[in-house]
Amino acid sequence: MRNSGLLGDSGFLGDLAQLRTEFTRFMLRYQFGIEEVITKINILREEFRLLHDYNPIEHVTSRVKDPESIIHKVARKDCDPSFDAIARSITDIAGVRVTCSFTSDVYRMSDLLTGQSDLTVLQVKDYIATPKPNGYRSLHVLVEVPVFLSDAVVPVVVELQFRTIAMDFWASLEHKIFYKYRGDAPAGVLDQLAEAAETAHHLDTVMEDLHRQVHVDTASDRRPDGRLVPTDDVLEQLRTIRTRPHPDSAAGPEGPGSPEDHDSPDDSGY
User: I need a surface site. Which of 55, 103, 150, 198 has the fewest CB within 10 A?
Assistant: First the structure.
């Protein structure tokens, strides 16, 4: 009987270990999905920083729901507890929030991201055009991004939230106030929050108008900093080289230079 009990315990522990592995694999998909999206955002961010007049992205945050929160939501929604069903039923497991400078930047960044061919847009909720009754404003976009694992390509749903600094400020404080009142804030507090939301919206409008006035018909003479940005001296050298007569094309595909003209592997800078 004792041996049978041990075997039973071993089987239970084995099942538990397998379930933990499956759950961890499930969670990793969402973490990898977030990393895929953030890589795309960082590429756009660097492009704007180095090549455009200003960078419309103020900051980016992300989060993956922890396993306990997911299980609580599964129980609350009474959905099928298989991992495939959880992925279909709960679409906010992975989230990325992009805070932009101005309202127009919110739509611009959303269009740039969702226009990429490997992202599939599943749903759009525009709470800027149609705010929630409490005054909440933000642009929510549900996308599906492919995650390349060692044994499969897995489509992962990521919720994107785009908002301005003013929208983010209001939403953060509103969340803290509701947490304090445990979701049952007095009517007077709700009225003040709604009024503050309108004030934040007005601030967004004023600041964007000022931004347009300052930048209208003006070209930035700011030289961005960065290892990839050429100095004036390098640009002058390039201009000089381009004004030289080009070698005769008959010299061959590699040109008239000797082998010593080419960089050796040791000159690569790594």
Answer: 150
